[in-house]
Each structure stands twice: as C-alpha cells, then as structure tokens.
Amino acid sequence: MATTVDRPAFRFSTNGLPEVERGRALRELNDGGALPLRLEPLQGNTVHVELLQRSFPGLGVISGVLGGIRQIGMGGSAVQASDDDLFLGVNLQGGSVVHQRGREIIMRDREGFILSRAVGGFAVDRPFQVRFAGLRVPRSGFAQLVHNLDDAVHRMSLRDTDSLRLLGAYVSAILSDQAATTPELQRLVVTQILDLAVVAIGATRDVALIARGRGVAAARLCAIKSYIEENLDDCNLGITVVAAHHRVTPRYIHRLFEDEGVTYSEFVRDRRLACAYRMLTSLSHTEQSISGIAYAVGFNDLSYFNRTFRCRYGAKPSDIRHNL
C-alpha cells in the first residue's frame, strides 16, 4: 500500500488484507490526502480497492477496480482551494450510481460522468466491482474547448460513445505503461487525453476537428496495438479484421501506422518476432518445438519465420535457444 501524496504516481490495494482491516486501511488513505475523492465502505458490501494514480501537469489520472465503495466529493467550504476542478469518470466494466443535488443517475458499462464540487457535494456508489478510469482537471482546461460546459456539468452523465471508450482505454494504458517521464512526453500525454475528453463531453466544432486528428488518433492507435498484442496467435490477423473490430477503415489504420514510420504488416511481424524471442529464451517453453513457437505467435510459414527472425536478431532461432 503506497499513499505518499507528493509522488507523481502511487498504488493502493486491499488485496491480501482481511476484510475487517480494509475499513481502517481506507481511513488511513483518506487521512493521508492521497486521493481527490474520499473512499467510504458501503454497508453490507465487500470492500475491494485496486487503484493506480498518476499526476501530470494540470491533470490527474486514475484507474483500477472499486467494489463495495462510495466515492465522495465534498462540497461547500471544503472545496475553496480546488472548486474549479472537474471530475470525469468512465465505467470500463460494471455499473455505478451517481448522486448530486438530489438527483440519482445509474451508469452502466462504458458510460461516464462529469462532476464539479463547485455546484455541491456528490457521491458515486460502486456496490459491486467496477473497472474504471478517471480524470481530474481544472475547469479552465475545458471552459473554452467544450460547447455549453455548464450544461454538461448539470447533465452529469456521459453517454456511451466511441470517444468515451477510447478515453477510458487510453488512460488505463498510459497508467500501466509508466513511460511518459520527460516533460515533453508528459505534455503530449496531457494534450491527447484532454483531446479525447473534450470530444467525449462535446467539443466546439473547430476544437473537435483538431482533437480528432490528434488525441483521438493517438488513442485509436493505442487501442489497435493492444488488440494486436492480444491476438498475435491468430494467423488471420489481417488489417481488414482489425479494422472491422475497431469500426474504422483499413486505410485509416494504414495512415495511423504510417505516421509512426512503420507499416501495419511490419508492426505485426515485429511483435510476433519479439514474442517468439521471449518464448525461445524462457525456461517455461523449453519443451515446445521451434516450429510450435512460430505457429503459436501467428506465423503460418516456417521458412518465413526463420528468415525474418535471423534478419531481426542476427541469429537463427535454434542458436538463441542453445544459448539458454
């Protein structure tokens, strides 16, 4: 359990804690001020918390799993120092109930919310386990970019859209990657996340055109790469299949990869070769034949696998295995 507030990133988990100790752990977390929203146990439900939070310039991001929990945003005098913050959440899997100003909204899979403590305290109930992603951003970051921001805050709920799904997936990917360490990369991440957020909320026309060509494209490419990684073993993982799954055209995917200086086919081939290399150097795969490994990572032509592997790593697959 890490709850140091002055670090750019921290984790918190109740895994391994007896149920009777989880309430105390949450109190310690709340007292430490590590989270922008308090976590309180929901009576009669099993508490489950897995959180990963990270701070970027002008942006806080968080993702994880919550169950048996109420998230509370205090209103009134408690928000004098941060009453300009907006909280945006996305249910990646599971449902929640949002409460503010006497209203109750049920959020389902892939739906989200936008809340502000400036208009009053709020609570988000997650009685059952929900995988989610969230943002905390100054209102000034959205004020000139979103059409009728006040209406969106009053409405509270965000419907299931392509941009909202991409936002949730991209936040989770950025948090798990931990690669954006330089100021330049951090600014890029913030720009891309805000692009997705303003489109999901309702960007002005000019801003939407820019955001769709910048942040949305980056998130789409991230989602496509993740899908490829998860399906490398499918030898029929052609661009038409991937495009259909992500509801875009093959030409759009080609452009996304071309902007990174690589083709779709080259990316898939290189990820398959890297996976094969890991398997060849792993003791857990010593009983598996080289041909079996090649087929397992999606190659359906053994001679092509051997040729490209040697070109990539400067050695035959058998030489790599013999060096174990």
How does the SSE layout of this entry go?
Elements: E1 9-13, H1 19-32, E2 38-41, E3 48-56, E4 59-67, E5 69-73, E6 85-93, E7 96-100, E8 103-107, E9 112-116, E10 122-126, E11 130-138, H2 140-143, H3 149-155, E12 157-158, H4 162-177, H5 183-201, H6 205-212, H7 215-230, H8 239-246, H9 250-258, H10 264-280, H11 290-296, H12 302-313, H13 317-322
Antiparallel strand pairs: 1-3, 2-5, 3-4, 4-11, 5-10, 6-9, 6-11, 7-8, 7-10, 9-12
Rg computed from alpha carbons, rounded to a whole number of angstroms: 23 Å
Which stretches are poorly predicted, pLDDT < 50 over at least 5 residues?
1-7
Strand/helix succession = EHEEEEEEEEEEHHEHHHHHHHHHH
Please name the CATH topology of the largest domain: Jelly Rolls
**How many DSSP-defined strands?**
12
Percentage of residues in strands: 15-25%
Summarize model confidence as the mean pLDDT. Answer: 85
Q: Could you state the CATH homologous superfamily of the largest domain?
A: Jelly Rolls
Largest sheet: 7 strands, antiparallel
Percentage of residues in helical conformation: 40-55%
Oligomer state of the chains in this structure: single chain
How many helices?
13
Give the distance, in angstroms, between the N- and C-terminal Cα atoms: 37 Å
Number of domains: 2
Strand order of the largest sheet: 1-3-4-11-6-9-12
Tell me, what's the shape?
globular
Can you tell me the CATH architecture of the largest domain? Sandwich
